[in-house]
Amino acid sequence: LFRSLEHWSRKLRSLVEERARFERTHRFVDAAYRDTHHDVMAVAERICTAAGLELTASARAAMRAWSTDNPQNKYGRHEYSLDEVGFTEDEVRTASTEYLERFGQLT
Over the stretch 3-25, which tens digit does the pLDDT of each residue have? Predict the structure, then answer.
């Protein structure tokens, strides 16, 4: 059963507040979902750079092999719509205002 949109709106506001608090002492790398499919190696490189790690040739090869063996929708595709859960796009946008202002559209 889906919880109310207000519940998730509060969770997102809390996430934004906690993130701001932790940014003082921790490093974060934001990656849009689309980027993980468009150029996953570039995302991995950004993460490693932020962590001060080298992305070795063997690590790259292992990641490429895993990606090849595990394509998106390997086990089927889950499709859903906002209409199915009784929300509109405008309602979700309004409920997500703080998140979208802080992180933009990370999809």
Answer: 688 898 999 999 999 999 999 89
First-last CA distance in the chain = 24
25's tokens? 């002492």
DSSP string, 52-103: T----HHHHHHHHHHHHHS-TTTT------HHHHT--HHHHHHHTHHHHHHH
Quote the DSSP letter at residue 25. Answer: T
Three-state SS at 41: helix
What global pTM score does this model have?
A: 0.70
Residue 53 has pLDDT above 70, yes or no: yes
C-alpha 21/C-alpha 18 separation (Å) is: 5
Rounded CA-CA distance 22/69 in Å is 35
Return the ∠ at Cα 13 (arms to 7 and 17), rounded to 5°: 145
